[in-house]
Amino acid sequence: MKPIRKAVLPVAGLGTRFLPATKCMPKEMLPVVDKPLIQYAIEEAYEAGIEAIMLVTGRGKNLMEDHFDHAVELEHTLEARGKLKELELVRQFPAPSKLMYTRQQAPLGLGHAIWCAREFVGTDPFAVILPDDLVKSDPGCLKQMMDAYAEVGGNIVAVTEVPRDQTNKYGILDVVEDDGRLASAKGLVEKPDPADAPSTLSIIGRYILQHDVFAHLDKKETGAGGEIQLTDAIAATLGDVPFHGLRYKGRRFDCGSKPGFVAANLAYALDREDLADDVRAEIADILG
Ligand code: UTP
User: Fold this and answer.
1) Cα separation of 256 and 28, whole Å?
2) What residues does 135 pair with on adjacent strands?
3) Dihedral class, residue 98 (left if φ above 0, else alpha if ψ from -120 to 50, else beta)
4) For a disulfide at 140, which of 44, 159, 234, 277, Cβ 3.0-4.6 Å?
């Protein structure tokens, strides 16, 4: 089994749910407490053993490239003022060639964004992280998936139970066998009506994929919402490649939605020694 050393992070969506904040800033640069979403995703990838990452960007590319590069003036100023802790924080970024960028020239869907990274992936298996799905866990969600991959190989998605009346918001697995941790599946459906949903196990933004998905993505077929869907490409490989959903351990925050983003900020702040007491006091004050 080939080890997974590459990850693709699509960050080219329009982020319309966060307008006007995302008018000229990608939503992946929104901070949870004091760190942008994209940095959490990159740290999760490296923790899982990923060696090279490709960001598929659209607009706002410069902001992310700048974030993961030296800020010479700022570093000099922090150094001159003896702010060494802060200096350390702004110098944390991957070495050149460990982080690469390509552009999705039009937002044609998640499947199309992944297709844009096909030359980078080549014939290797690879991981995909959607940075707006933030998973608070130790070890990280992708590391848990890597461990599952060592057991079963093939394509793996991270999954969580959703209420049946919400299946029309998610990609849903058609499960064959389920041991409570790993569910092997014979299909997946994008946003099924509750009455038609084959299960209530929904996919979140973490995937381990074989390069076979590109054979389908090459066809540029559109699916739900008129977009080129990654789930359709995974479904097309069923039968050729084992397919499992992993119930990860941890708490997932859908930071692409406002309630999820606000909840993530609270959860991460309440977990910080330097912030928890003050934040708790603020919440108590707001709640009266
Ligand atoms: P979303 O479905 O959250 O869409 O994308 P969005 O455009 O980012 O946000 P809204 O719904 O308008 O508020 C899920 C993931 O797929 C990426 C996004 O960047 C996000 O990581 N994506 C989506 C692309 O890279 N390209 C696309 O064409 C679509």
Assistant:
1) 9
2) 252
3) alpha
4) 44
Q: Considering the entire predicted model, what is its pTM?
A: 0.95
Q: What is the separation, in whole angstroms, between the first and last Cα of the chain?
A: 57
Residue 88 burial (CB count, 10 A)? 10
CATH numbers and ranges of domains, the chain: 6-256 (3.90.550.10)
Determine the residue type at 12. A
Check whether 60 has a pLDDT greater than 70: no
Residue with tokens 């992070």: 9
CB 26 within 8 A of CB 67: no
Protein residue with least CA distance to atom 22, ligand 1: 13
Residues with CB under 6 A from ligand 1: 10-17, 56, 104, 107-110, 112-113, 130-132, 256
Nearest-atom number in ligand 1 for the CA of 10 is 25
Helix (H) or strand (E) holding 174: strand 171-178
**Smallest Cα–Cα separation from 254: which of 27, 26, 101?**
27
Sequence-separated (6 or more) residues with CB below 8 Å from residue 284: none
Please state, in angstroms and rounded to a whole number, the distance separating the CA atoms of residues 179 and 256.
30
- Which residues, at least 6 apart from 273, have a Cβ–Cβ distance to it below 8 Å? none
Q: Whose CA is nearest to atom 5 of ligand 1?
A: 13
HSE, side-chain direction, 13 A CA sphere, residue 22: 21
State pLDDT tens for residues 72-88: 999 999 999 999 999 99
The residue count of the chain comes to 288
Give the model confidence (pLDDT) of 158-206 as tens digits. 999 999 999 998 899 999 999 999 999 999 988 899 999 999 999 999 9
- Residue 123: how many CB atoms within 10 A of its CB? 9
